[in-house]
Every structure is written in C-alpha cells, then in structure tokens.
Amino acid sequence: xxPSDRLAEHFRIDTAHQKALKKLRIETVSDLLHHLPSRxxxxxxxxxxxxxxxxxxxxxxxxxxxxxxxxxWKSKRPIAEGWLEDGTSRIxxxxxxxxxxxxxxxxxxxxxxxxxxxGVGDKMYIANPELEPLESLPIDRHDSIFKNTENIDDxxxxxxxxxxxxTSRWFYHTVMKCFEAGVLEKVTDPIPxxxxxxxxxxxxxxxxxxxxxxxKLDHATGARKRFAFxxxxxxxxxxxxxxxxxxxxxxYNIDATGDNVxxxxxxxxxxxxxxxxxxxxxxxxxxxxxxxxxxxxxGDVGSGKTAVAATTAYAVVTSRPPEGRxxxxxxxxxxxxxxxxxxxEILAKQHFESFIEYFEHLxxxxxxxxxxxxxxxxxxxxxxxxxxxxxAQLMKWVKxxxxxxxIGTHALIYKSVEFKHLAYVIIDEQHRFGTNQRKALTKKGxxxxxxxxxxxxxxxxxxxxxxxxxxxxxLLDEMPKGRKQVITKIxxxxxxxxxxxxxxxxxxxxxxxxxxxxxIDEPDPEKENALNLKSVISEAERLRTHVFxxxxxxxxxxxxxxxxxxxxxxxxxxxxxxxxxxxxxxxxGVNVPNATNIIIEGAERFGLSQLHQLRGRVxxxxxxxxxxxxxxxxxxxxxxxxxxxxxxxxxxxxxxxDLQFRGAGELYGSKQSxxxxxxxxxxxxLKLVEAARAEARTLVETxxxxxxxxxxxxxxxxxxxxxxxx
Length: 726
Ligand code: ADP
Ligand code: MG
What we know:
- By secondary structure, this protein is α/β, with parallel strands linked by helices.
- It is built from 26 helices and 22 strands.
- Helix content is 38%, strand content 18%.
- Among the domains are: 45-148, CATH 2.40.50.140; 260-288 and 304-455, 3-Layer(aba) Sandwich (Rossmann fold); 487-649, Rossmann fold (3-Layer(aba) Sandwich), CATH 3.40.50.
- 41% of the residues are buried.
- Helix 8 (217-248) packs across helix 25 (686-702), helix 8 (217-248) packs across helix 26 and helix 10 (274-287) runs parallel beside helix 11.
- The longest helix is centred in the first third of the chain and has 32 residues, at 217-248.
- Strands 12-11-10-13-9-14-15-8-16 form a nine-stranded mixed β-sheet, sandwiched between helices. It has a six-stranded parallel β-sheet with strand order 17-22-21-18-20-19, sandwiched between helices.
- Magnesium ion is lined by residues 305-306, 428.
C-alpha cells in the first residue's frame, strides 16, 4: 500500500461512504491519514457489560433495546426500562419516575451509560443510568485497542469528526488497517529534518502513528503540534511566495520628502495622533523604495484611518511618473493616480466628502463611482461643490489622467474603469473584500501599484500574521485625544428598565440609537438568516409598541438589497429615523455622529472584539456615548468576560482575550478563515506561528520556486487558500 493509492483500491467503499468521503475531500490513503482526530477519549474507566458486578459504578458503551414504560406493580411507580448490549453481554437498565425516558430514546440508539449496578444474577440492572447519546460506538468491544487493557495507557482512543455516511469508528479501523499494511514505511516527510529538529517536532511517520493511536496523551499532543506547525508553515510559505512576487515587482518611486505633505497635514482640523504620524511615515518610506508596498493598516473604529489614507494619497497625486511615461499626446495630466475602494455606497460617499474637505484648497479633481451614479469634484459651475456626471465622462477623465483620485465601491473593479498611472490602491474595510477583488484592482496599474489595506477588525496578532502573512502590518493603536470613552454597562436579566429610561431621555434630547439583535448561532446559514431576520423584525415591533412609542424605528438586515440598506442608512444619517434595529452581520460602519447609544442584545453570544467594534459606532460625535451589553446569562463567568469591555485598552487587547477565552475556531470560524480546527488551535501559540513564519520566509528566500522542495510545493498549491475573514 502506498500513500498515494486511492482508498477504493484497498477497501470496499459503498456509495454512502463514497459520498461522505468526497465531501471530506478524502480520496487517497494519504488523505485519510491526514484526516486527524478532533479529540481523544479516555476509556480506562469503561467496563464490559459481562464484567459488571453488583454495587459498582458502571460506565458502559452499548446499544439500547427493548425500551418501554410501565408501572411498578406494587407501588404503581412509573418506570422506564430496557436493556443495553455491548457485544459481550446485555444488562437491564431501569429508570424510576422518569417514564418519558423510554420515549426520548429509540431502540438501537448508541449510548454511553453510567450508573450504579444493582440486584444480583440475572436480576442485575443499572439503576437510573445517565445516558449520553452517541453517533456510533467509538470502538467496538472486540477491537484490538481493548485487547491489551492491562496497560492503562492503551485506553485512549481517537474520536474523528463524523459526516453522514462515515463514522468515527470507520476512520479508526481503516487507518489501523493502513498502518498494518505498512503504509507508514512509505510516507516521506515534506518538512526538512533540520526544521523538525530545531523545534523538536515529530517526523511525519511518528506523528501519524501518535495522532491516530497514541499510547499516552503526550504523544497525541506532540503529534498535533507537528501538524499545526505544518499547516501554518504551508500557509506562510504561500504568503511568503505571494509577497516575494509583489515586492519583486518594481513600482512607482514616490519621493514625498520635498512635497508639501507637512502643509497638507497642517490643514486638518486636528493634530494627528502619534500613531497616525507613524503610519504615514511608514507608508511614505515604502513609497520611496523601488518596490510595491503591501501594507495592512489596522486601527479601531474612529482611530482616523481616513486621514492617513488622504495624506498618503496626496503624496501620490502630487507626484509625476518618471520621464518618458505617458507623455505622448494632447494635454498631459500626467500625475500619479489613486483608487480608493469601500465596501458600501454610503461609505464610499463619506470618503468622497472627507476627501473634498481635505483637498478643497488644491487643484486636484476627485471622482466617485458607485452602482447608482458618478460624481466629480469640483463642479465647473460651483467650485465648492461636486457635480453629478455620466459614467462615460468620468471614465474618460480617469483614463486620461485628468481625475487623479477615484473613490468608489466594487464598481471600481469593472473592466470599463481604466487608469493612466494607477500608483496607489487603498482598500477600506478590506475584510469585506476577497483576495481576488483586491488583486483585480491592483491589476489595473502597471507597474504594480502600492497597496494599503485598512481594517477596523481587531484580530489577534497570530491570526493577522497567518492570514495576512503577505502584508506588512501597521497598527493605529491610539485614539485621537478628547474622544469621549464609551460608558459601557452590562445589563443583566431584569435590569432593562433603567436602560430604556436612559435611552428614552437621549432620544428626547435629540440623539439616536442603535439596537443590535443577537446573531443566533446556527450551523445552517440559511436558517441563521431567517432567525436573525425574525429577531430584528419582532424586536423592532416590540420596541415600537412597548418601549419607544414616539420614536421612528427602522430595521436593517442582511436580506435587504444593497440599495434598500443604503436607503435605511441614509434615513438614519439624516435623522429621519431615531432608532435603527439591526443584525450584527449588517455593516453599520457609517459615521452617524448623532447616534450616541447602542443596545446590544444577547451580548454573551459575541466575541469581545466584536462587541467593541459594534460600540465603536457611537463614538463619532461630540456627545457622551453609551453602550449597553444586554445578557440573559446569569453565569458569573460570562459577566466577568463582558466586564473586560470596560477595562481593556483597545480592540487588540480584547481580541487576545477572546482568543484565550473562547479559541479562534469559535470566533473566526474555520470556514471563513480557511484554517482547520488544528490551525485555529495553533493561533493560541504565538511562538509556533512566528517560528513557522520565519522558517517559511527563509525557505522561500533560498528556494523561491520551491524547486528543491517539491513536496512542499505540492501542498502549497493544493491549499487553494482564499484566507480572509468575513
Ligand atoms: P476610522 O479609522 O474608523 O476610519 P475615521 O478616519 O473615519 O476613522 O475618523 C473618525 C473621525 O475622527 C473623523 O471624524 C475624523 O475627522 C476624526 N479624526 C481623525 N483623526 C483625528 C485626530 N488625530 N484628532 C481628532 N479627530 C480625528
Ligand atoms: Mg473608516
């Protein structure tokens, strides 16, 4: 048996199996071996039914049968009873006063049963056992794993994630058969031995054996570490290669030192924060090199990313391309150009307005392109205002270089949008766009334009190193001075009255409020939408009739079309509505300075950094902002976790809390990020991530095309990663 053999060559695979395996993308023996257990169970406490003795506490695995409810004939007590069979024998199970149990379970159900053995001889039974339903028996009683039970360490067995059609047990048995067929002798380790030695990682052969059939838990832990390293390593190799391509590309060299950047900054109605200044310096330094910048600017909502974007855009549009480029005919509007992409129409418009404010004093034209129309500033008739123009007209001016700054939604990506000298691409809320959209925009420039991605999603360092491994990182970890801190209150059960009184008072004083309805964690996204929708609509109804009776209340949710959403957002912005009831999945990243209150229902369902981001919506104005995190949970732990909202310094700190409290998998979803559960687990380990990254970079430096590491190349190309957060 070879690792590359198709499973079907060695095993009888029925159609149900086939479907399930396909879904898990398991085709070859090697694929199977890399389908790793998700956890382990210690079965040293399991007994076989035949070995049970009266008076002992039994833990048995088996199948239920003969379930029925009846009345005890003397006392008339209701009784549920049946038997449990495990392959060695069967034993009666009885529950007193819980007749419904017989109905809750079906004959044939696999369970783990624990309870006290009572009675003697063939009258022996387990009294009131606790049942834990199982998809299947983990390993059956006659399996080899049980044969050697005098060694207590032999009692850890792996549990695999199951899919309809294949059980955990099937995985285990099949893997064992592959081992018996000697497949481990034929696996070759893609990771260079030197790297394994440096971090004391098991070689592949050992790791596979230990992860599927550990003798002790330490083995399994060590093996998992190796595979976690491997996964992060491949991602880092891929990122390092992407990065190498980008930074090998020559780009426009923009010399901002002689420019009037200082003057431009001095016109802002505020002094820059040190973090903003640092970010601008870093970007300008990148501009002055020969190679294309790829940088991620991470900063909390309200940290002032737009000013950084505007200043660096200014440096670009006041620069000219090197001699000999694009100076052929007609008037030469030869300056370099900037494209600035935002995820929604309203955001794009807001950026357009900010840029008008910042560039007003300059002879620089600014264009706006969205699905619903195009604008240009300044207007010919009134130089203080923008004017609506046709798309064709705007495209002409962008193409000939006359309009150097083009702001827009994903409409910017359209083929019809062509630039003369696109030198700088700025992407706002970059997590809302896929890698391909990012690439589509940068492709419009030749040579490769500089790229600035911006995000307000605070994520732990290990995660950004992993999924944004191809980008350099700049943090805006400082808020502008004089910002009012959001007063955050945790509202427990029955504490809502004063909260509503407060918000009513605020509405009366002319302020506005957001109400965020919980995201209901359903694995099925369709269902989730339906539930969220319902909770938003019914909550709005409840607030209308019972709480904010005189207020104008609007709803915003994911099932609305972009233009409907924009309309609702605009009504809120123009204060035509007072309260906006929305789902958290809906981006409310729009600046509504008059909205100073946010109520977040079901707060315990959110990660802390998500809550932090939500409350960021209310810090834009001059009024004191309030956030109410409402939770029905009575758990002390939950409330403690929520309290971190008042103590943490910034979103990054909260994202690290999240990682420790809840783990990355739950927070960022492996589906969205493209990482496996194991990879997610690895994110808790900064050292491991940094090591994988350093090794990957070194490898790509010494062997840029992976010619000497074709096993790694294979894995990297099959990753097909499109890692980003939703
Ligand atoms: P974000 O980082 O969320 O995109 P914005 O760029 O929209 O933040 O800035 C939020 C608000 O803060 C804007 O109204 C902007 O004018 C203001 N602002 C930006 N930088 C500063 C600063 N250094 N001092 C005071 N206010 C600032
Ligand atoms: Mg912003």
